[in-house]
């Protein structure tokens, strides 16, 4: 029989179990703290990069000799008036700085811009005008709109027809391409006073104007802005 000093004390089991529990709990807490300090695992696969533009498939037909590059007169036929050499050379320079420049598409957009700007100006629609004009031109248009508003005048203008739109001049300078379009159009306008009485109701009239559009060929925004206007007497 063991001596009384060697008798097993049951409380040692309780303390031992408590110590194990405390150690396990500390390790659990420390583990959670470390996890919070590390970045969470990714929840998604990274978005794949956009595929590069696919070149057109080569033709199965036997290769033929590449056509000769058209000269300025042929290249800009229907865009600039024949005989306006400065316009042709200027358009060549614009196209050289911006390979995506398309003269006919530009004129088509210019026609739409002309009608949109003329009608928005008459209505006093600054919100429509703002993205279409340079700051200088917008300030001039806005000042005239403010004058009409102060006098209580209103105006309605309609573009009856754009008889012609041709490039009159073009140039490429550092960080900026400019193309001037000569518009020949027929407009009709009605101007009224504060009481709604007609001040001026002219018949359809012919107008000839030169509008200069500009953009940075390296800018992400593909839109051109109106930077100058000039009426032809």
Question: What form results from the Cα inertia axes?
Answer: globular
CATH class call of one domain = Alpha Beta
CATH architecture of one domain: Roll
CATH topology of one domain: Nuclear Transport Factor 2, Chain: A
Low-pLDDT residue intervals, each spanning 5 or more residues:
1-5, 18-69
Write down the secondary-structure element order: HHHHHHEEEEE
Instruction: List the total number of helices.
Output: 6
Distance between the termini: 132 Å
Mean pLDDT: 77
Give a short account of the largest sheet. Answer: 5 strands, antiparallel
Beta strand count: 5
Structural class: alpha+beta
Percent of residues in beta strands? 25-35%
**Backbone CA Rg:** 37 Å
Q: What is the helix fraction of residues, given as a range?
A: 25-40%
How does this structure look, described?
The structure is a single chain. The chain has 233 residues and is of the alpha+beta class. It has a domain at 79-231: Nuclear Transport Factor 2, Chain: A. Helix content is 37%, strand content 25%. The chain contains six helices and five strands; from the N terminus they run ααααααβββββ. The model is unreliable at 1-5 and 18-69 (pLDDT under 50).
Question: What is the strand and helix layout of this fold?
Answer:
Layout: H1 11-37, H2 72-75, H3 85-97, H4 103-123, H5 126-129, H6 135-151, E1 154-173, E2 176-192, E3 198-201, E4 205-215, E5 225-231
Using brief descriptors, characterize the structure shown.
alpha+beta; 6 helices; disordered N terminus; 5 strands; 233 residues; five-stranded antiparallel β-sheet; Nuclear Transport Factor 2, Chain: A
């Amino acid at each position: 029989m063991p001596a009384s000093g060697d008798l097993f004390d049951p409380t040692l089991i309780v303390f031992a179990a408590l110590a194990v529990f405390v150690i396990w709990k500390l390790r659990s807490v420390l583990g959670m703290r470390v996890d919070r300090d590390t970045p969470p695992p990714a929840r998604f696969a990274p978005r794949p990069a956009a595929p590069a533009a696919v070149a057109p498939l080569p033709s199965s037909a036997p290769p033929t000799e590449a056509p000769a590059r058209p000269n300025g007169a042929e290249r800009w036929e229907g865009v600039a008036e024949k005989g306006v050499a400065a316009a042709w050379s200027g358009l060549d320079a614009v196209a050289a700085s911006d390979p995506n420049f398309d003269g006919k598409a530009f004129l088509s957009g210019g026609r739409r811009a002309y009608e949109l700007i003329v009608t928005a100006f008459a209505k006093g629609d600054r919100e429509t005008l703002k993205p279409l004009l340079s700051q200088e031109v917008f300030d001039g248009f806005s000042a005239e709109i403010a004058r009409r508003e102060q006098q209580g005048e209103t105006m309605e203008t309609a573009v009856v027809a754009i008889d012609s739109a041709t490039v009159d001049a073009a140039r490429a300078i550092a960080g900026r391409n400019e193309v001037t379009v000569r518009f020949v159009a027929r407009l009709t306008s009605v101007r009224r006073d504060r009481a709604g009485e007609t001040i001026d109701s002219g018949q359809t009239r012919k107008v000839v104007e030169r509008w200069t559009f500009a953009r940075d060929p390296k800018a992400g925004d593909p839109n051109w802005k109106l930077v100058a206007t000039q009426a032809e007497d």
